Amino acid sequence: MKKLKFEGYALNSNGLVDIQAPKEDYDNGFYFLSNDSIKFSKNSNIIPPIFLGVANVDWLHAFGMSVYACDNIPHAFAFDNNGRQIRHLFELIEIILKSETRVDFVENLFCVEFREQVRTFLESISGSLLFVPGAAAGQGSFTVSDGTNLDPFAIEREIWRDAKWDKDKFCETYQVNAELEADGIRIYSNVIGGFQDYIATITQINVTEDRPHPFSLRFGSGFLANDIIYQKLRKALSTIPIFICLADVKESLHTLLRFHSYSPMILWMSNLMTGTFLLNDNQFFEHSKAIWSQFRPHGGIPEIDCTVLQDQRTFMEFYHSAGFSLGDYYSANSHTKSFRELVPYLSSKNNLQVTNMQEYIDQDKGESKLPNTRYIHVDTFMSSSNDSISEDTIFLHILMGYGMSADDFIEVFNKSRAIAQRVIVMEHNPESFDFYMSKKQTSQPELIESLKPNKKILIPGNTCMDRNLMYIFDQ
Ligand SMILES: C[S@@+](CC[C@H](N)C(=O)[O-])C[C@H]1O[C@@H](n2cnc3c(N)ncnc32)[C@H](O)[C@@H]1O
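Above: the input record for the complex with S-adenosylmethionine. Below: its predicted structure, written as tokens.
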């Protein structure tokens, strides 16, 4: 696949996608905070997953829980079709990076200084590690001077009582009109969902008739559950490549899923594939169907390994509405298994896939299924000058297994080594049980092993754990 291009912001970029700063200065309404409810259970992925998600504020909660649960997430994407919303996420990340503690973050976010007693109270809150129920907000007890424990509403009011709020700074930073009220900051800003104003709260989420809708930070849950998660998120935000992209889910989700089709993924969808969005918009419905048919090839996406997180307030699980059941599961084919092992070894920037099977190039319409990878037939590769090939990683895709002689293979291998930082050789394993009944295999593992690879990896097949062999050669 070709390199993806987006307008947006990049942090710790590794060159995986081309990101251009947004052309417009976006001044639309946006969600200053969110109100989704996220259920998170520990992910059992052995290979670290890619994190993809809608760029509302809850992206931080979902990502925070993911980095807590899974080490070594290779990179993350946030996407939203509202340019102001992606700028807000970028600004929030900058605030987290400069705020050493959770409480500093809350003060910097709201442009406020709390009483010492409030800071101590907030510091004492320690929420659940792997579960982000909206209802976790307001947990803990706040004891006032007469010894009374307060209910959640009263806690929110107590937090804001006598707070030093810098209204000018807040309104200037977020370009909104806002007022401090007894139980939060009332923000006047149009957002989808028909809200023209809402109350931004720290813990409180309850909706009542007689006050504007609350959008809450839900301190005490998600990335603000406790200091361990907060620090893990801060570290991830300063080390993991993150791409915050202006992108409409309806147009870009398929591309993003295809781009990552050989990596396990965690996908945060907010409420875009639930309730009204799903029922009223056929494009959302089609995406939902594609994701829930993840175990079978669908529209160019092979058997993807995707854990979907979404707003839990809806009663409708989207795989039910898309008409699929868990019984539709079947295991990935051997091609998918091989590419899943391969992808972590590809360069993030650009790769070359060399094949001697013209029919595979034709089937794929000339475009490799691998991310940032160009397809080339081995004859074209051999007749090209070394200078005309600029890829960092060259992948020799089962050449002897499809009939290439050992001598020709060595020529292709030597040319690849002269050009690329990394050469990856994949071949069939003639000894594997998968090939027991089939015609004689022509791959020669002992020849490749004599070339002294840095690493050898066995790849499972249909009936065995070693159908294919993959060798990594680094400069
Ligand atoms: C659907 S809204 C709902 C608000 C959500 N309940 C919350 O608490 O933030 C979630 C996010 O999806 C974004 N969004 C809506 N339609 C979209 C689309 N077609 N493509 C990408 N993002 C979209 C919105 O801009 C917003 O940031």
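Notes for the reader.
Residues 31, 34-36, 54, 56, 58, 79-82, 85, 192, 248-250, 270-272, 311 surround S-adenosylmethionine (CB under 6 Å).
Residues 134-138, 317-330 have pLDDT under 50 and may be disordered.
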